[in-house]
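Dear support,

We are seeing what looks like truncated structure output for some complexes. This example has two components. We would appreciate it if you could run it in full and send us the complete token output so we can diff it against ours.
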Amino acid sequence: MQIFDGAMGTMLQQAGLKEGDCPELFTIEHADVVQKIHESYLQAGSTIITTNTFGASGLKLEDYGLSDRVKEINTAAVKVAKAAIAAVKPSAKVAGDMGPTGKFIAPLGNVPFKDIYDTYKEQALALVEAGVNYLIIETIIDIQEMRAALLAAKDARQELGKTKDDVKIICQFSFSEDGRTITGTPPEVGAILLEAMGADIVGINCSLGPEQLVPLIAKIASVTNLPISAQPNAGMPVLVGKETIFPLKPDDMAKFVPELMDAGASYLGACCGSTPAHIEAIAKAAQVHEPKVRQEIAPFTAITSRTKVVKLGHTEKPLIIGERINPTGRKKLAAEIKGGSFVMVKRDALQQVEAGAQILDVNMGVAGMSQVPLMEKAVMELSMLVETPLSIDTLDPEALEVGLQAYPGRPLINSVNAEPEQMEKVIPLAKRYGAALLCLPLNSGNLPEKAEDRVAVAKTIVEAAYKEGLRPQDLLLDPLVLTLASGDQSARETLRTLRLYKKEFGFPTVMGLSNISFGLPQRPYLNAQFLTMALEAGLTTPIMNPLNDTVKKAFVSGCTLLGFDPGVAEFINDYGYDEEVKTVKKKGPQGDAFSSDDPLENIKHAVEQGEKEIVVDLVKKALADGTDPMLITKKALSDAMSEVGVKFGAGKVFLPQVMLAAEAMQGAFQTIKEVLPDSGDVQKDTIVLATVKGDIHDLGKNIVSALLENNGYRIVDLGKDVSPEEIVKAAKDNKASVIGIASLMTTTMPMIDETIKAVRQSGLSSKVLVGGAVLSQEYADKAGADSYAKDGISAVNVVKKLLGE
Amino acid sequence: MAIYNGRLSQIDQSEVKRYAGIRKGGEQEFPESYVKEACMEVQLAAVPKGIYQWYDYDAACHTVLSNPPLTLEGTSIQKHLEKSTRVCVLGVTIGEGVEQRSSQLFKEGNYTVGMLVDSAATTAVEQVADQVNALVNKEAHKLGYQTTWRFSPGYGNWPIEVQKDLAAIIHTDEIGLSVTETSMLFPRKSVTAIIGLMPENGAIGTKRGCSSCGKLDCPSRNN
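Here is the complete output from our reference environment:
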């Protein structure tokens, strides 16, 4: 059991630190005072004291214009702490403190990862060189900042020739009431990732009181065997006058010591609001409590995003790695990426997640382009968009490293092969960034055909990985999938490899499913059959397309058949319908089967319901049966829209439903035009529409435009922020019967008056219709408009009236 | 000035429906697939960005002690901040792309999704503002302050003409957010707001959300 010290800041204030002064500079100006504070904590029972360097990174000291004094301030702080130890308790240790920089790493913020890494490295070098026993990275709320700080701390330690026997690194997050960091990371994600990256102790400090820390400590203990530290605040603070008061007294805090220890904490201290008296109470309580023995956590394979843990393995339910984000063989995607757009990449990600992918493979191999910037951008975009962990798929070690650095979690590396040069580069990167590593049994361009040969090659990779310090739970195996077109035994060998892998290693397995059918017909079907076989043989994680129904169904069936679907619930949920019912459901949102003998009634009903596909079919059928298109337009379509308008007015249907009906009607018009190009399409009057100058609202005008167009008017939509001159010109050029103008803000209302004035002065005979959230009939009258419409539906009626229809 | 860009890993569909004026109790059920599609369009087109800054506040003369100081007009905001000694001013935007996408969808005849994209974008910008707000609250609570809910120009009788000044003090240009001559935020799917920090447990009298607004016939009004 180790006991840290308590708060430094409040002690400094009591000792004379003024508001706005740099707390870390106090060590240099008043070394004796800081030493006294350390001594009082040592006397109270601390076995580890923390240096006065919470904000002594270059980036933080910049706030005080002291960024050139990083080494001096950190060195002095260690010296003072050591002096206190020498004077009071020679057995005690020094922890060099590194707090947050106060800035966020891009893309969550705007500071490059490297800048944050550099600033921590500079501080860590100074602290380690001055002789600390621990480095403590604390009060961190962003996992990227923690990753940068931990890498910097490890690098500094190594550069100075030290090991974890000399300097242990403690990583402490600060969580909010919801049990996550404010940026969304739960304790389990932090612990899994930090252990993989080589933290020596993980823990929590600040923000919460001791009671709230207990369950969070337990969560950390549920995923790691590393020692755990807990440094709560003295309760939740209140500000009285200018003073921040923490309510918990020393004994109040000490009350929770047994619970924190039983949950798994073996390094205890306190954060904001605590004093030597608090530490004394905590130390005493810890001394007399015999904690429960921590449950040993058996190694398990997991990868994480910023917010989510995903476990893989033979006892876990198989998981899908979505294969779509890969420009190989996808010309359109490749062209988009080449053009600098990642919209399709993002769409692929969201659609695959929706379809059930629990990991997303990211491959940026676009011919003729460096993968390095592409991988960085893809990983940044996707880590902001989805909670699903990523698999970084590249053979280029440089692209791999930028991807790993940019990723706020523990990703999967896809993959490393047995080529010595690849292993030398990729395995250390996996270790450095705490990634899981997929091993592919290939060497020097040689594809081992027999399962036994594949196992042998895999073994060389696994051994190399162990040598570099990777653990069994960091490794996954690919059995190699070769197309059946290349050899009729290829599927068999893959399946045999899976079985041998399971027996020999027991690691999770990953394979690119669709390779099996390359060059063959009926690929999804073949892939699906192979998938269920492979799942049975020991495949835990197929790389596949979850958007393909056939393959997805095989996956769900395979999981169900292998007993991973309790109560067959998922299967029934996904596929528990009979095919016919689903077809009907797909066609109409209501799934009701309205049917009349009158084809016009059927069309009308379908328009009212906004059922676009059904309307098109019904119109085609009616035309084929010889129904007069004019009759369809008048009796079915127009009547339907009128009906919808009335229902909207009565509050029975809502605007989006009106738009749906309009779309259905549009579909009907187009069908009539397609089937009978000369069906007497009478072009009605022209209407010019615009939002007035200075106003950038588009939506209301777009809705009016859509509805008027549906009623057969010719629309000239000038967009938003349009000057009176432009409106007048467009009305003249197009011989507009009506000019519709909108204003949505009180600040742009005067432009309604201006525009009307301009129209009148121009001598145009066009009628002017006005509308928009802030306008009223009264305003319209005063401004001299011909009419006012309160919404899109009434605009149609008003226009009809204006034109005497 | 601190930059904190929110994430949009999901968009609250019930809020999207509320902004679109879809309520319970209609004659027809509205198909969820359109709402989902609109949310995805916004996730693809949005570029969330946020910026915030802390200032001392003089409640007696309603002045944010920024450089230059900013005196707040309007009794609503003055009352809202009457117990605050510090404030945080924030600005967020999700960029221009969402609006362009909405208009494009209208042009393609996809009126429904086009309209819902606008509602989903409004939801998204509020979600980003919520994330910055949560961060601000956390930092304030750490010092023992209570925080007010965030108040934006246009709420109550706080004139929207203040947009320009608010944007200027926190340098919203750093996140690509500007203010038009007519006091509108550009890109339009943006929010500026002020959060008050109160030393003691000060209950504030100002009403929050829809109940603070006088537009009783608004289709998105929360009951």
